[in-house]
Amino acid sequence: MLSRLSRISKQSPSRRCPTAQPEEAMPSSFPLYLTAAMLAAPALTAPASAPAAPDSGLSWAPCRSVHQEWEKEDDRSECTTVTVPLDHAAPAGRTIGIAISRIRATEPQRRRGVLLMNPGGPGNQGIGMPWSLTQTTLKNVGRDHDLIGFDPRGVGLSGGFECPKDASDGVVPAPGASAEQRFRAEYQTEAHANARCTGYDRELISRLNTRAVADDMDDIRVALGEKKISFFGISWGTALGAVYRSHYDRNVDRMLLDSVMPPEFSVETMERGTSAAKQAGYEDFAAWAADRDGTYHLGRTSREVRDAALSLWRRLGEHPVTVKGPDGKTREYSDGSLSVILSYQRPHWDEVARSVAALRDGGVPPLTGEEPEHESWGLQPDSSGGLFMQRSVLCNDQGAAPDADAAWRLKRYRAEKYPMFANGAGYSNWCSGWPLTHGPGWDLQRGTSPLQLVGHRYETITPLVWAEQMKRRIGGEVLTVDNGAHGSLDLVDCASKGVDFLSTGRTSGGSCPGEPSKSLPGRPG
């Protein structure tokens, strides 16, 4: 997932990976271990050639000198720590250190200010994002902006922690259990894990929410001595940006948001939106395959193709098949495997069609039907706090989770409406029995600061319609990239529109070419 981007640390994914997992493949909740919370940066004098910037009083040090696994080629990033209140409503109470990095503007005479950024998750480390961004098509934003990365609270060098799986959480359904019984067992397993994990440090975990991270961003602004900041957010980073702009609009210079979240947030919103987007893409595929029935023999009409695929999906659910795959490995293909294959994007439709035909006829499918490693919403698993921080933010943000009865009804609704894609983004039981009082919510408001939203026409993780809904809620303009790769503005040539926006404040509507767009789930570009 670090495609084309430098790896800063074995524990520091600097970018999102746009893949949703089938529900059964999602890891359960995970005893809680705290990792190093602070980045101990010795005081160093800034280089004499550094561009003029407000005197913040912060002590900066080369990141590679204070983090032993930092990218050794990166001789530009400086690091320090900003101390913020754990509870912004009680600033005299407990504090947490937020690790930040900086790459100074390369053209100091044109310096406009600072550009904070977040790569998504929630749960991804962002402290290495400035260096990563200099390797992409968005690199020119660093001409007139200092690039500022940070690990959000509860992640990586900012108090990162994890909560590993525990056998005591498991509720095992009886042999031959029904689908509902298996679902309820999974619900109870997740509820036990959530109760155990949140009990280790309720004060901290209850304050892992999007609004708190936005408040931390404003504390970073103050610590840097800046009157205003610009911001670049991807995936969940777009929610973070929207929340910051809603509550600190006067402190925003410009904001660029790529692969936009829905303005009304809940886990079910994520599930249903992803299911619907996958279903729409699948129906487009069926029409495409019907036009090529002479090649693939899946059906002469879209309806025939869809009926044949659904019949095959049901058969594989009852009787999975074991074949030697294209990589020479023997693997089992189930209904879940076919759901994954049918969610692959347009550049892979030839392989999708041949895989469906092979599974129907006993051949070897060219696609494996396996998701890449767990990377839902841009998250890479690591030991720096990503997975449990993600769960905490999602559950604290959405408020009360549905009980087991309501959760099962929601699952059945999706199964009836989108039978092959009912698992959506794979989050349906993540907040089961979440025991903490929910956070302040997003409370999104219209703003006046310049806002550029970016959506991707065929994307299923954060569907394009969400960018349009966000525009109606908070303003801004939507630029549509003609691809399906999540958070890929910085991989395509029309990133130049984002660079121009951050330099001039002029937004762009319409669309732009989306190459590279040949992406399997989890592999942008």
From TrEMBL:
Chain intervals with Polar residues compositional bias: 1-14
InterPro entries xref list: AB_hydrolase_1, AB_hydrolase_fold, Pept_S33_TAP-like_C, Serine_prot/Carboxylest_S33
Pfam families: Abhydrolase_1, Abhydrolase_4
Annotated segments matching region Disordered: 1-24, 505-525
Domain Peptidase S33 tripeptidyl aminopeptidase-like C-terminal: 419-507
Ligase in keyword set: no
Ranges for domain AB hydrolase-1: 114-306
MF GO annotations: hydrolase activity
Keywords: Hydrolase, Signal
Family the UniProt entry places it in: Belongs to the peptidase S33 family.
Official protein name in the record: Alpha/beta fold hydrolase
